[in-house]
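Structure in, sequence out. Go:
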C-alpha cells in the first residue's frame, strides 16, 4: 500500500467518525476527539508531532560526550564495534530496568550503526518499503 493510499484510507475513517460525531452532537452529546482530527494531515503536522525534542537532546548530549571520549562520528580514528549487538544489549537492559539512559544509548548505537556500520549484509531499502520513502532518503543523503 502506498503512503498516499494509506493516508486516504485513514482520512476516510476520520470522515466516517466525524459524521457519526455530528449525529452525536445533534443529539446533545459533546464533541469527541475524532472531530478535531477529521481534517487531512499534512507533512508539517506529522513532522511537528512525530518527534521528541527531549529524546533528541538526550541523544545529542550523550553523543557529544562520546565524541570527546571515543572520537567523532564517521572519522577513521574511531574504533569499530558491533554497534547493533551493543544496541540490542542496551534495549534489553531498558526492558529489564526501565532506565531511560539505556533507551537513549540504544538509539545512539543504532545511529552509529546507520552512519558507520560494518554489517556484511548492510543495505537500503527494505524490500517492503514504498518507493517514495526510499527516494526521499536517497535524495537527503546527497
Amino acid at each position: 500500500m502506498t503512503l498516499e493510499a494509506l493516508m486516504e484510507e485513514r482520512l476516510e475513517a476520520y470522515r466516517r467518525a466525524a459524521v457519526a460525531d455530528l449525529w452525536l452532537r445533534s443529539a446533545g452529546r459533546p464533541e469527541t476527539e475524532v472531530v478535531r482530527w477529521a481534517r487531512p494531515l499534512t507533512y508539517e503536522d506529522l513532522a511537528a508531532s512525530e518527534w521528541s525534542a527531549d529524546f533528541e537532546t538526550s541523544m545529542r548530549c550523550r553523543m557529544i560526550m562520546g565524541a570527546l571520549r571515543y572520537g567523532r562520528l564517521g572519522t577513521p580514528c574511531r574504533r569499530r564495534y558491533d554497534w547493533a549487538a551493543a544496541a540490542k544489549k542496551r534495549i534489553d537492559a531498558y526492558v529489564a530496568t526501565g532506565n531511560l539512559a539505556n533507551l537513549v544509548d540504544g538509539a545512539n548505537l543504532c545511529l552509529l550503526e546507520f552512519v558507520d556500520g560494518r554489517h556484511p549484509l548492510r543495505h537500503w531499502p527494505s524490500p517492503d518499503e514504498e518507493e517514495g520513502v526510499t527516494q526521499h532518503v536517497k535524495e537527503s543523503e546527497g
